[in-house]
Every structure is written in structure tokens, then in C-alpha cells.
Amino acid sequence: MSETLIGIGARNGSRPVARRLPRLSALLPFRRFATPVLLVLGWQIACSSGLLSTRLVASPAQIVATGWSLTRDGTLPANLSVSLVRAASGLGLALVVGVCLALVSGLSRLGEDVVDAPLQILRTLPVLAMVPLFILWFGIGETPKILMVALGAMFPVYLNLHKGIRAIDPKLLEMARTLGLSRGRTIREVILPGALPDLLVGLRFAVGISWLMLVVAEQVNADSGIGHMMMDAEDFLRTDIILVGLAVYGLLGLASDQAVRALESALLGWRPVYRGRAS
Amino acid sequence: MNALTDPRPRGADEAGKAVAIRRLTRRFGDGPAVLDRLDLTIAPGEFVALLGHSGSGKSTLLRTLAGLDPVTEGTITRPRDVSVVFQESRLLPWKRVWENVVLGQDGADRRERAAKVLREVGLGHRIDAWPLTLSGGEAQRAALARALVREPQFLMLDEPFAALDALTRLKMQGLVSELWLRHRCAVLLVTHDVDEALLLADRAVVLEHGQIRTDLPIGLARPRRHADPEFERLRSVLLDALGVCDG
């Protein structure tokens, strides 16, 4: 009510101000992009004027041009698809193994004793430090790369789902018992849907980690993939190609994070937060 | 609230007991017995209110009857089809209201059955709602519907209105009374509220140190009124049994 009154007052008082205000507020969502755009402009100017050596860093325009030519000659799509397949297989493997282990250790005490301790010990090892060992074990083909991704991404899946299963409200489990639900049905209808939000949190971490693992795996002993493309470019001082690779990694991370978010709002429609966002 | 004045248990031919508890004893660790050789019978269709202080063993008794706690000493006989309504609605937030109501039930007509019982508790318009969007009273109505859809012979209510505001509680008490007159199942209502017990129950039992110390038939005609002198008298008796002075 008071807002309307103030609005009327402003319109009556000074017309130009009232007319300019809505236009400014329409620009407000874009204000966040002002700084990045300015930075890119400054970067371009610094490169064009010779302030920045293109041996150190290519200009934004050059990056776009290189990206386009790499796309047209098929280098980028070929390497991108190799990287995507690696990340997807690794992540898929991590999901399957992580979910299975979490179910085993989340649903039975015996399972927890058997599975949880070794995983908690393994978790404290930096997975990236195992690259040399993986190369020794599995050579330099696709296997060590996919396994690196899988190993790194498995832990967040396992840890979050395990936590989610263990954190199910015991009152809901009691209710299921009074309704006479069988063990299998309780797992299907109460435990798994209740742990799904935690699984999705784990999945988001896992997606982030799989790109990280992929970068390292592809920069050590690879003959294809975005990481290989970047390492190759290093030999020829092609900072533009390196930056194209970086941009692709960034976009891939962003896109996969959005995909998991979309999955969350699709699957967790019952949570008031997501209803609010959807409407 | 309801027109019937003399609620009799479902048919005179249904003799015997719906629930019989014989010398039920329960203790945790080496502590004193929470339930101490407790005897209680509930007739088919009878509405019994169970009162008592916190720690008097009310919850333990109800949990044992619901099959959530094991029977270690003594015996319990109860019908196969029982339902429990807890203080919290305990609806699964990831299932729509109607799916919660028929949780664990099979058959192609699940949705119709849910709809029918939801209409009965006055929640027919929220059949497809998500539980987290329900108010406290609506959620308890859904929990009641979930209990009733199983057509229980014995219904346990564990302080089902304790978390509701006073006006909603009055409405819910009316609803329970109505539903009981229609379904005629045996009911055990655990409550702290003496007035609630007097409004709803055929009999009020007071639990003390794990035993039933007071077993008070409530012969008031229904609908019951607070202003009734007999209501006042029974209220004093119950408060006295609970060790509260009715000033």
C-alpha cells in the first residue's frame, strides 16, 4: 500500500525521474556482467596495444577466432568427444559403484563394517597422487583415465548417499513399520527417496571432481582429448589454443552443473524451495 | 457434534475383547519397570483414553501395542488390523497426499480409495498436494485418513492433537468423534488433556508407575458439554487421580 503511494507521489512530483527509474531497474540483472565484460575489454585493449605479449596470453578476439577454426577443421569436436566419453564413462562408473557401496553400507550394519572403513581410509589419499601408480598398472590407454575419473568421483557419491540413508528420520521408519511395509518396500518408498537429495548433492560434487580428474589424466600421457590438445599447444607456444581448451573446460563444468541442477528441480519437486523457483 | 446419544460397541454379538494386555512388564536396562504387570482390556468399538504424567509409561505401552517395541514379559492380544496416528503426521514429504494415504496398499483403485477417505476427513481438495504444503491440522487429517483407509479394528492415537492450535484441536476432536461413531473401531487415545478424554472417551484410565491406578467409566451422553455438572465432577476425579488440585 505504502509503495503505491510513494510511486504516485514520485510520478506527480518529477516526471523525468519516474520515467528513467524503470529503465535502470530493467538493467539491474545485467549489472553483474558489467565487471567481466570490462575485464575482457581491457584484456583485448592490452593485447591490441602491445602491452601484453601474445606469447604470454592470446587476445580474446584471437581466442574466438582460434576456437572457430579448431571447430571447423574438426580438431576441437574430435578432442571434445573423446574427453566427454572419458568423463561420462568415469562418472557413470563412479555412480554405479558409489551407489552400490552406499546401499550396502547404509542398509546393513555388517555392510557398514566391511565397506565403510576401507573407503574412509582411501578417501584421505589424494587421488591425483595415484596417477603414476595408475599408469604403471593400466598403461597409457583409456583405462587409467576413466578409472581416475571414476575413483575421484566415487567418493562424494558414496559419502553423501551413505549419509542420506543414515539420516532418514527414524520416525518415518517407525511409521512404515506400523503400516506393515516390507523391508524391500520400505527401502524403495521411504529410504531411497529420502536419501535422493543427498545423492544429488554428491552427484554435483562428483561432476566437478570428474572434470578435475580428467584435466590431469589428459595432460599426462594422452594422445587425444582437450587436455592433450592443450599440452600439444604448449610445445608451439599457442596460448590461444591453450585458452580455448580452458574455455571449453569452463563451459563443460558450467553446463554439467546446470544439468544436475535441472535434475534436482525435476526430481525434488516436493521441496517447497523448488516449487518456489519453478513458479 | 454428533447426533447419536448412546454409542454402543459394534453389535452386541461381538462379545469378547479387541485388545487384552496381561501382566505386561517392560524395563529398560536395570532401571525400574516402566510398565509393571499391567492389565488392560479394550472391548470392540470401545474408546479408551489413556492419561498419565510424562514418564508414566504411556508411550511405552502404545509402542508395545503398535508392535514397535517387543513384548518381553506378559502377553498382548490385539486384532491384526491396527493403525497408529502419531503426534506428528509422519507423512512422506516426497509422496503426494493421496499416495501417502494408501502407502503400502495394493490394487488398481488405490487413488479412489484415498480420495474417498480424504473426503471423509475433509481433505478432498488437497488430494494431490505435497505434504510440506499442508498446515498442521491438514497434515493430521491426512494422517487420520492414512489410518482409516486400512479399516483398522483397533486405532491408536498418540497425542494426535498436542501440536495443534486450540481451535484446530477442537475441530479435530469433533472429527475424530464423528469418524469413530461411523467406523466403530476400538480406540486407544493417549493424551495429556483431561477435557479431551472426557469429550471423546467411553472410559479414561490413568497410568501411574507403570500400572493402571484409575479406571473411570465416562457415562456422559453425547454430544458432551463442559458445562454439564457430571462433566465437572469427572474432571475433578481425573485431575485428582493425576495429582493435580482442581482449584
UniProtKB/TrEMBL annotation, chain A:
GO terms for cellular component: plasma membrane. Residues 80-260 form the ABC transmembrane type-1 domain. PROSITE patterns: ABC_TM1. Its main location: membrane. Belongs to the binding-protein-dependent transport system permease family. Probably part of an ABC transporter complex. Probably responsible for the translocation of the substrate across the membrane. This is ABC transporter permease.
Automatic annotation (TrEMBL), chain B:
GO terms for molecular function: ATP binding; ATP hydrolysis activity. Keywords: ATP-binding, Cell membrane, Membrane, Nucleotide-binding, Translocase, Transport. Residues 19-234 form the ABC transporter domain. Gene3D superfamilies: P-loop containing nucleotide triphosphate hydrolases. SMART domains: AAA. InterPro entries: AAA+_ATPase, ABC_transporter-like_ATP-bd, ABC_transporter-like_CS, ABC_transporter_ATP-bind, P-loop_NTPase. Pfam families: ABC_tran. It comes from the Bacteria. Belongs to the ABC transporter superfamily. This is ABC transporter ATP-binding protein. It comes from Gluconacetobacter aggeris.
